[in-house]
């Protein structure tokens, strides 16, 4: 079962339920308790709430014709880093001076966790992500996104893109926030798969294709099992001394890094697939 956020025909944000590639709008107007996607996700039994809010009189439509919004309400977005060996070696390569820190954090008990975006900064499926004008080396980072309730239960899974300026990050690790946080640097969507419907983690793969002028210029894949950390462990560190009254989304790090001579260009189309969620597509603006 999946939920998404989209614009209704009256251009109002609304919540949809996705089944067999078809989206049906949920009737939130009839409910006092469930006003937004997060209210449903954080409830004790989201599947029952969805059944209650399905309105058979509402027409359904194919997912590809939906006008998607990012599937967040008021959550902050955080991200974990250097959770795959591929990410560790790529960072060591790009930042000679700081290479030792990437090696240390890969094996340390405490993971790298950083703030990535506010909900309103997140780009939806089919939206435009950006590369910084002052970066000459930028890449997308395809990542599994965890949707966490205020009490830090994993209530859903989605697809995230942690856009990164590798030259800025590589110049000095203290520049990490500038390499990672800027307008349109984070995309999430198209939908959130409820935790109960997500496949067994060892069956999940993340795939990314980047197309330029209709040709594939990069393609990569990783099984989630290559992640060196447990999801619950990342969540526990995130919630150690920080509370998230509106819930939080955690991107879990990338295991796919294009070769060092690759940088994104305007017009590139980035498609990220995660088993059990679907495909997030964004164009570089
Ligand atoms: O340490 C830099 C960021 C790492 C990151 O974003 C990742 O591994 O996905
Ligand atoms: Mg990342």
Describe the 3D structure.
- The longest helix has 10 residues, at 85-94.
- With 285 residues, the chain is α+β, with helices and mostly antiparallel strands.
- The chain has 7 helices and 18 strands.
- It has helices spanning 37-41, 46-53, 85-94, 99-107, 166-171, 176-180, 231-238; strands at 2-7, 13-19, 22-25, 60-62, 68-69, 76-81, 112-117, 128-129, 138-139, 142-148, 154-162, 164-165, 186-194, 205-212, 215-223, 248-251, 269-274, 278-284.
- The model has no long low-confidence stretch (mean pLDDT 96).
- 18% of the residues lie in helices and 35% in strands.
- The structure holds 2,5-dioxopentanoic acid and magnesium ion.
Short description:
The protein is built from 7 helices and 18 strands. By secondary structure, the chain is of the alpha+beta class. The protein folds into 2 domains: 2-69; 76-284, Fumarylacetoacetate hydrolase, domain 2.
Jot down its keywords:
2 domains; 18% helix; eleven-stranded mixed beta sheet; 285 residues; Fumarylacetoacetate hydrolase, domain 2; binds 2,5-dioxopentanoic acid; 7 helices; 35% strand; globular; binds magnesium ion; alpha+beta; single chain; five-stranded mixed beta sheet
Bound molecules: 2,5-dioxopentanoic acid, magnesium ion
CATH topology of the largest domain: Fumarylacetoacetate hydrolase, domain 2
Cα-atom radius of gyration = 18 Å
Shape: globular
> Biggest β-sheet: count, sense, barrel?
11 strands, mixed
- Topology order in helix (H) and strand (E) letters: EEEHHEEEHHEEEEEEHHEEEHEEE
CA(first)-CA(last) distance: 32 Å
> Please, what is the CATH homologous superfamily of the largest domain?
Fumarylacetoacetase-like, C-terminal domain
Helical residue percent?
A: 10-25%
CATH architecture annotation of the largest domain: Alpha-Beta Complex
CATH C-level name of the largest domain? Alpha Beta
